[in-house]
Amino acid sequence: MSFFEELRDRIEATDSVVSVGLDPDPNRLPGPMADRDLPRFAFNRRIIDATHEHAACYKPNAAFYEGAEGWRALRETVAYAHGKGVPVLLDAKRADIGNTTRQYASVLEWVDAITVNPYLGRDSLQPFLDRHDSGVFVLCRTSNPGGADLQDLELETGEPLYRRVAALADLWNEGGNVGLVVGATAPEELETLRREVPDLPFLVPGIGAQGGDAEAAVEHGLVDRDGVDVGLVNSSRGIIFAGEDAVNATGADVTEADLDRYVKAAGDAAKRLKRVLNRYR
Ligand SMILES: O=C(O)c1cc(=O)[nH]c(=O)n1[C@@H]1O[C@H](COP(=O)(O)O)[C@@H](O)[C@H]1O
């Protein structure tokens, strides 16, 4: 089954397009997690337990798993999410020259989808694109303030670069496995891009901590696949660290009951986001 078919089934089963971003910043983990073997996995495991009913997908960002122990935590996290029946999109923003990018693409043997960077052109993405069962999300219009620096540059045709990227991604979609990454902080660009590439599902980050537009994310981010709206709207810190408001969990004297309340807040945040997004579906 292809990634987008699996995602469609998951969205239908959970009635959710929420992507829960697993970005376990070591400086923000609740106190007791620091003492555990693989603290990032210990944290993610509790977050997955609390949120999986509302998660269409988990999106760990590779930056939070640097180092040998981090990579081990990532592998455990992916296996645990799969055990709950949730697909995993690795946010790695990869691409490189041929032999290097082939190595990068080997990660798709154990994750279901990945984010890639189009800057090096088609050949740098080919090993990802060749995996028709995996999802390949091409960075198109990113959510950060500097996203406009290059992506909005006008080409000789008058169109901004991000629109050319979208048109190319559409051409690269021979295997039906390509999506775009478009930030919720750029609602006008989301609308433009949906017109430009009506069939590509979007991963829309930037909701929650970055203050993006949830309505635009849903209105333009999703595409119909056999009667199901397919696409992903991601929140990372807004979900996984929601417990910080409920519990001061940074000290050494945090109890198991505190941790229970902390992770429950993450579950509630995922559920709330699902409800908000579903209002616009
Ligand atoms: O590729 C991404 O997922 C991504 C693209 C983008 O334009 N903006 C963006 O925030 N992201 C990622 O989405 C997540 C957003 O995290 P929060 O701001 O905590 O919800 C991080 O992992 C970012 O790296």
UniProtKB/TrEMBL annotation:
Any one Gene Ontology molecular-function term assigned to this protein's record: orotidine-5'-phosphate decarboxylase activity
Active-site residues from the entry: 93
BP-aspect Gene Ontology terms: 'de novo' pyrimidine nucleobase biosynthetic process; 'de novo' UMP biosynthetic process
Enzyme Commission number(s) of this protein: 4.1.1.23
Catalytic activity annotation: orotidine 5'-phosphate + H(+) = UMP + CO2
Pathway: Pyrimidine metabolism; UMP biosynthesis via de novo pathway; UMP from orotate: step 2/2
SMART domains recorded: OMPdecase
Keywords per UniProt: Decarboxylase, Lyase, Pyrimidine biosynthesis
Membrane spanning stretches: none
Coiled-coil stretches: none
Residues in Orotidine 5'-phosphate decarboxylase domain copies: 17-252
Pfam families: OMPdecase (PF00215)
Entry's family note: Belongs to the OMP decarboxylase family. Type 2 subfamily.
Protein name per its UniProtKB record: Orotidine 5'-phosphate decarboxylase
Organism: Halalkaliarchaeum desulfuricum
Phylogenetic placement of the source organism: Archaea, Methanobacteriati, Methanobacteriota, Stenosarchaea group, Halobacteria
